Each structure stands twice: as structure tokens, then as C-alpha cells.
């Protein structure tokens, strides 16, 4: 976890340097997201261990420069299994580098960077009974932040469509590999189980160029 935080600090510092040198823009957006996990073992089938995909989305504010975007927001994801409905909440930070290509009617750009989704709380409900779990409760459950946080290496593509000279619409699609790891995953890896976690996001935002 300390390494993850250190990487985020470095990228935020780099982002601040980028933002200081170029014209700025800012805006608000939302996303639809799906987070998935798959398990494999060389000798036997372990697919029954795989949780259902977490499906949901969130909202964010973004701060933008020519070659970089920083975002901060919240994410809300859920799944249902055996009559138990689970919802998970995250505080989200992200930093994406981009290389704009002006195509006249719009600007297209590839995206590469990180998204850090920090688990804040989870609620499980069934037949009128509900249980809320907060981050401080993870240790009691024998878990840590790495079991529920997401640190996603992302790549994708986005575009800016301007409405007038200052306001723009920004669609984007991002896919990434979740690099986080916790106590539960260590137990699985000790049994030679390979874990692959990934996340897909479809984003739509509105921005203003200063």
C-alpha cells in the first residue's frame, strides 16, 4: 500500500507541474463501470471462486491541461448473489496522461494513467436484514485495504467536442488492470491460484476551457 501511495504522490506532483505550464480546463462527469475478477489454476478448475462482476458507476470533477487530466470523485458498485445484495462505495482519485490529435471537428486523444479507488464502506442486505461494513471494520474480518481497494493501470481513448469556444463534451472509454493485492489474495496465491482483476469504464463529462 505504501508503494501505491508513493506512486500516486509522484504522479500528482508531475500532474501539478503539467497543469502549471498549459491552459487549464475543468468540469464534471459520470461513468458506467464494471469491475471483474477471474481465477485460474494449472491443475484444476477454480472458477467457482470468482465473484460476480461489480456493476455501477460514479461521478467526478476533473482538472485538465493539454497533456494531463486529474480527477476526484466517488464510485458506487453492486452485485447480487443468492439473494444477497451488496453495494460498495469508493473514494476515487485518478491521473491520466493524454496526447491530443486535432481532427478539426473534435480533438481525439489516447489516454494512459492510474485510477485509485479507496474503499469507504459496503452494505449487504437480504430479506429486510442489512449489515454495513466500514473501512475500519476490515481488520476485524481478517482483511485489509488491498482486498477491496482498486489501483487500476488504465488505458483508453477520449475526445473533446466543443460547443462554442469554451464548453466541450468529453466521452471516453477506459480499460485497466487492477494491481491491488491484499491478505485474501495472498492466501489464494499461496495455493498457486492466479488472479486477474480488470475494470471497464464508459465516461461522459462536460468541461469548460479557461
Q: Can you put this structure into words, describing what you see?
A:
Helix content is 15%, strand content 60%. With 210 residues, it is mainly beta. The mean pLDDT is 89. It has one domain: Porin (Beta Barrel). The protein has an eight-stranded antiparallel β-barrel. The two termini are 36 Å apart. The protein is elongated, with a radius of gyration of 19 Å. The chain contains three helices and ten strands, in the order αβββββββαββαβ.
Structural class by helix and strand composition: mainly beta
What is the percent of helical residues?
Answer: 10-25%
Give the number of helices: 3
Number of E-state strands: 10
CATH class: Mainly Beta
Mean pLDDT score: 89
Amino acid at each position: 500500500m505504501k508503494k501505491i501511495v508513493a506512486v500516486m504522490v509522484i504522479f500528482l506532483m508531475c500532474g501539478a507541474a503539467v497543469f502549471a505550464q498549459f491552459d487549464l480546463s475543468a468540469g464534471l462527469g459520470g461513468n458506467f463501470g464494471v469491475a471483474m475478477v477471474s481465477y485460474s489454476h494449472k491443475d484444476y478448475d477454480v472458477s467457482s471462486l470468482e465473484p460476480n462482476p461489480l456493476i455501477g458507476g460514479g461521478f467526478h470533477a476533473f482538472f485538465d491541461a493539454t497533456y494531463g487530466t486529474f480527477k476526484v470523485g466517488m464510485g458506487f458498485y453492486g452485485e447480487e448473489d443468492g439473494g444477497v445484495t451488496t453495494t460498495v462505495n469508493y473514494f476515487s482519485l485518478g491521473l491520466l496522461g493524454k496526447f491530443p490529435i486535432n481532427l478539426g471537428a473534435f480533438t481525439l486523444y489516447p489516454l494512459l494513467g492510474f485510477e485509485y479507488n479507496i474503499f469507504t464502506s459496503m452494505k449487504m442486505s437480504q430479506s429486510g436484514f442489512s449489515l454495513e461494513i466500514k473501512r475500519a471494520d476490515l481488520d476485524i474480518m481478517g482483511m485489509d485495504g488491498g482486498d477491496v481497494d482498486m489501483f487500476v493501470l488504465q488505458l483508453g481513448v477520449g475526445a473533446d467536442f466543443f460547443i462554442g469556444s469554451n464548453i466541450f463534451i468529453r466521452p471516453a472509454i477506459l480499460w485497466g488492470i487492477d494491481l491491488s493485492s491484499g491478505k485474501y489474495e495472498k492466501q489464494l496465491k499461496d495455493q498457486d491460484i492466479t488472479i486477474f482483476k480488470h475494470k471497464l469504464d464508459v465516461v461522459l463529462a462536460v468541461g469548460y476551457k479557461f
